[in-house]
Specification:
Length: 178
Amino acid sequence: MRTGDAVPPTSAFILTTSDASAAGMREDASGARLEERLRELGYSVERRVVPDDEPVIAAAIADAAARHRLVITTGGTGLTPRDVTPQATRSVLDYEVPGIAETMRAEGRRSTPLAALSRGVAGVRGRSLIVNVPGSPKGAMESFAAIEAILPHALETLAGPFDHRTAEIARTLRDVER
């Protein structure tokens, strides 16, 4: 299932991309904090940790988007050669929603100029919204806070109907047929 049609809009998936966390060498603090916040907001949450491997990340995102309306990745958005989350995300998106990533970076720059170095992206696959946030707990939570208020509308819009003018178009077609 690609579109996630049977999934309620309050279902979220957190994918942590980290070699160290996947190997059990570091706690997934960002994923845990994101899960806590999403649960506070009423989301049911599933989590997974994968290594910084582009095909593995892409497959995990695609699988999650088939089962959840919101997919948040944490980690892998920096400048090192192993930071491949944005590339993996783009490879499975139907289209990007650049304003989301722009909003997160703009808000992050209030705390640190280094937020401008985040390469995180956001976009849509089927009816699911996919968002990359930084791997640090502080960066992940600041980024999520920056978009928290727009998530209900984004998810509602993706759930359909897709055209805000559906009724108007139907009336126009009826008028033309007369």
